[in-house]
Design brief:
four-stranded antiparallel sheet; Arylsulfatase, C-terminal domain; 15 helices; Alkaline Phosphatase, subunit A; 439 residues; eight-stranded mixed sheet
Length: 439
């Protein structure tokens, strides 16, 4: 059972920084192997899932892909060929079509919104109905839940401070209820359950809703430009936009006064490209099928998930990947740490906003993907876990070392994969992404 909660942050799943009530998640943490430093390779769904399903980094599966890349060798297909029956429930979005086309259950999709159909709006019962049906064994079931994806909708029962200090954490409390119900329909003696996320997201740290800040940020300008009618009075239009920008920037500067870098980032609108940990550190829990209880602080990667599953079920994958099995860690052994390759997930043409980098348990390094010297960032994660202070300028020796590691990862890459995308599919996906706030 592979449960992906879109946009679930690691620090809101486990740890001292969460205010939600999780009476069902907490016992699972005591029953399985949980990784506190699990890092996907991208800050957006498509790139992240492509890496998860293939065990390959985005520069192989495609850093600008708009659809799940399952045409080439991948773990889901390999599990199917290993005589597993593939089931799934996921949003009905064109980018997911290669995955739901693999599922043998006919009712494998739900309304992707926005807002997407939620657990309390019938999705939870849909999952339980599937688990209660006569699923042909052995089975692999992929479920993608969008309750934490923008725009957040809090179920009435959980719209109370006792369930969390903001919308996000209240939704986490509501998700916990359904995790309990879902797990009650799973036999953990013979079923491995993996709970994780494709990526994380920013949350305002001052208890305010994200949407309160969106109008004063650049997203508001983009919307204004898109809705601005064409006019022969171009000078007047430009003057209006310039004046509006000045006012918005002044308001933003006042609102951000005395805030840390992390706090300022928390006010950024959805979707803002980001390789900071609040956007890329996710939960990763393996429970059931004989797994022991352990909280692991080792840095691991999302590309390691399926190699681990493959070893647990004795699947010989046979393809070269960037990932590796984490099973030795389950058994108390040590593994040398591997750096994580990172890439932002824009759907537009290449731009200076595209970022590439690597993360170790000690440092986070990233810079513009088109220019090695553009927007260079380096953070000491052990002494500055919220990434408030960019130390790149004063630590060029470390920057050069991190750049060499990044270059080595890319230079030793496998052959790049390609997938065909028709014009109709591209238009459909772009329209869906706009609705979801990605474009």
């Amino acid at each position: 059972m592979f449960l992906v909660f879109d946009s679930f942050r690691a620090d809101k799943f486990y740890g001292k920084d969460k205010t939600s009530k999780t009476p069902n998640i907490d016992p699972l943490l005591k029953s399985g192997v949980y990784f506190t430093q699990a890092i996907p390779s991208a800050d957006g769904t498509t790139l992240s899932l492509n890496s998860i399903f293939t065990g390959l980094y985005p520069f192989v599966t495609g850093t600008r892909e708009m659809k799940l890349s399952l045409e080439n060798k991948n773990y889901v297909g390999a599990i199917r060929d290993f005589d597993y029956n593939i089931y799934g429930i996921m949003p009905k979005l064109t980018s997911y079509s290669p995955l739901y086309n693999l599922c043998i259950n006919q009712d494998s999709v739900y309304d992707g919104g926005p807002p997407a159909q939620s657990l309390f709006d019938g999705l939870g019962q849909k999952i339980i109905d599937l688990l209660s049906s006569k699923m042909k064994e052995p089975w692999f079931c992929y479920v993608h839940i969008m309750d934490l994806h923008w725009p957040l909708v809090v179920p009435n029962k959980y719209d109370d401070l006792q369930y969390g200090k903001n919308k996000y954490e209240k939704v986490v409390s509501s998700i916990d209820y359904w995790i309990g119900r879902i797990m009650s329909h799973i036999d953990l003696t013979k079923t491995l359950v993996v709970i994780t996320a494709d990526h994380a997201t920013t949350i305002p740290v001052d208890d305010k809703d994200v949407t309160e800040f969106e109008p004063s940020l650049d997203l508001g300008l983009k919307v204004g430009k898109r809705l601005m009618p064409k006019s022969t009075h171009n000078f007047g239009v430009k003057l209006f936009i310039k004046s509006r920008r000045i006012i918005q920037n002044a308001r933003l500067a006042q609102a951000n006064k005395n805030l840390t870098a992390y706090e300022k980032r928390s006010r950024m609108p959805y979707y803002t490209l980001s390789l900071f940990d609040e956007s890329i550190r996710v939960p990763l829990l393996f429970v059931g099928y004989g797994t022991k209880s352990a909280i692991m602080t080792d840095q691991v990667r999302s590309v390691d998930i399926f190699p681990t599953i493959a070893e647990i079920i004795d699947l010989q994958y046979g393809e070269k990947t960037h990932g590796r099995s984490l099973l030795p860690l389950f058994n108390g052994q040590k593994l040398d740490e591997q750096p994580v390759y990172l890439h932002t997930m824009p759907y537009q043409e290449p731009s200076p906003d595209d970022m590439v980098g690597i993360r170790t348990s000690k440092y986070k390094y990233f810079r513009g993907s088109l220019d090695h010297n553009h927007n260079v960032n380096l953070y000491d994660l052990q002494n500055d876990p919220f990434e408030n202070t960019n130390i790149a300028k004063d630590n060029m020796v470390i920057v050069d070392k991190m750049e060499r590691i990044l270059a080595e990862i890319i230079d030793n890459t496998l052959a790049k994969q390609k997938q065909a995308l028709s014009k109709d599919e591209e238009e459909q996906i772009r329209d869906e992404l706009k609705k979801l706030g990605y474009v």
